[in-house]
Amino acid sequence: MKTYGVCIITILFVCVSANQWNYGHLGPDVWSEYYPLCAGKSQSPINILTACTLYRDIKPFEFISTHATKNYFTVKNNGHTIISIMSTAYEQLSVQLRGGGLNGTFDFVNFHLHWGENYKSGSEHQVNGIKYAGEIHFVYKNYLTSQMAVLALFMQSYVDHTKIISDNNDQTRDEWQRYFDMTRLLRSENDSVLLDLNVTSLMGENLQDFWRYEGSLTTPPCTEGIIWTIFTQPIIFIEEQLKLLRDNVFFEDYRGPQPLYNRIVYRNFLHETLSTIPDYNRCVSVMHQVLRFISFFFLVTYATHEHDWDYGENGPDVWHERYPNCAGQLQSPIDILTACTTYKNFTPFTFGAGYNEEHNFTIRNNGHTIVGTFNNETYLSTLRLRGGDIKGTFEFVNFHLHWGENHRSGSEHEVNGIKYPGEIHFVYANPSTNQTAVLGIFMQSIFLQNETEKSSVHLLDEESRREWKRFFDLAQTLTDEDNSTVVNLSLSLLMGDNLQDFWRYEGSFTTPPCTEGVIWTIFKEPIFFVESEFSSFRRKIYFEDYRRPQPLYTRDIYRNFFNETLSSIPDYQCCPKKDSINTSFSTEVEWNYGEYGPDVWNEFNGTCGEIYQSPINIKTACTVYQSFPPFQFSPNYNQTQDFLVTNNGHGISATQANASAYPMTHTGGGLDGTFQFTNFHIHWGENYNVGSEHQM
């Protein structure tokens, strides 16, 4: 019996190896069982979350002149795709490329296509979850190092010809038309034709901007270590061109996106503008850890290269040229549009016992601002910060000021477009996680002709005022860079008493290197100063040292106070709004899971294109605990019932035959009211590794 069992297993293995792999029952979800590398952690393709890409200055590609000449290709149906290799029947020069951040010279190996069941599906890579109709891979290899590189271009298909009138890619489209006219004849495996093609024409002209990452082959054996270049601009096709291929060769031949794990995706262009809904919480956690380490290092040293940026000639508008992060989409400061904030219940802050005591702080002119640091390691633990929904214990790093040219300008953050004369930042870091948090407090000036002006004096906290006056009296003597002195101060008095209400968002440093991932807390109530005392400091040190608000993009701003009352002119049109739901349904097209599948459902049922769609991938690490009451099921659930089981053309559905006589209802589970059973149905896939709609 044992021998017989071994024989059977061997035969099965040989059968699988002979059939190799496909996109059906031996599809991508089970490739790893026969090709273990397909379960690796550097697999391709991926979903490129553009909000999470990092800028890198990469040299442009240098395409050797043979790219622009006609070459003869053997175009073959290999059973998985249509692949084109240079014909050995002709003496031809190598098609090579250099540059693009690649080491050495790379020789052309092949180009091949991936496509899907309709014009909304087929690309292997996705961009912010968006698929294209197809994807072209130009494969190259450095034969000295055995390094492989793939240049990928998306295929964009338009049913409406008028959408491509302005496109100047006719030469590229014509070259591909010649290709499609021949390849539609390659219906059977091993069918092949000889075709002369120009690689430059096939690639098109939009090869400037691209993403770069390290991945794998997208088909077995899924070899890793491949350098991927994904061009941002697709090649535009007329749908009839792709339909020729789709209808005559395969239904689909693409692998879905694989986990990114801790890889970083780079972009060679400075400004990232594709993220219409950039969910920055989806960015790779390891990348955040790297950035936060940089943040912590920068906070402690407070600028390694202090002289390559300033607030003048090398000011905020050009910082990004030396510090690419300064052009990111999580930048600070911002204009807090209070009408658009969302209420969230935060735990209160807890300040260490040392806040109420006076300590010696070193205040220094660092060439950009006046920064106060605490160097007594013995008492540093007494200045710790907890609570406020920031995770863990945070150590005090420094406090510093931003101010402007007059009493109407100087704060970095704004509130409904209103500036304050200045802004104080108290900076903290969690040494365990390298997370940075900043508490920001606005500075407000009061003009006093004399100390008896009752209308303004009541706003002043005399203890806080005296503490800041001692700071200003010494700080204004630090007129030269690297001047420093020691002053005895209490953080509690510097911060004041109005620390109850605040706004919260995720941002960045407001100075280079503009590292992102910083937790910002902006207190609603300012500290009041006497303008004459503040202006004396302003005149003697700088004219201004503040960065202006950066775009919010789609970040959320939360507030910890329930009623939002600051919007004297609340322009709610500025707030992100959910598109109106289109509930119209066209009966002209019957939906399915093929040609009229999920990727085009929204075209005849607008609701399918909304933002609250199911299913989802449940990322358990991102779930939030909430206590729900248990479900309560009615007694009829325990009774045997008659069900009508139907094949409805999409699945198997079972409905209760006598629902009116024996209703099955339930309550609880955090749902409001009573719910009656309607049906149950099943979703399944092509093999035992795929079929569920939700993922976890």
Automatic annotation (TrEMBL):
UniProt protein name: Carbonic anhydrase
Gene3D superfamilies: Alpha carbonic anhydrase
Cofactor(s) listed: Zn(2+)
UniProt-recorded Gene Ontology molecular function terms: carbonate dehydratase activity; zinc ion binding
Source species: Rotaria socialis
EC number: 4.2.1.1
One Gene Ontology CC term in the entry: plasma membrane
Lineage: Eukaryota, Metazoa, Spiralia, Gnathifera, Rotifera
Reactions listed under catalytic activity: hydrogencarbonate + H(+) = CO2 + H2O
Keyword Secreted carried by entry: no
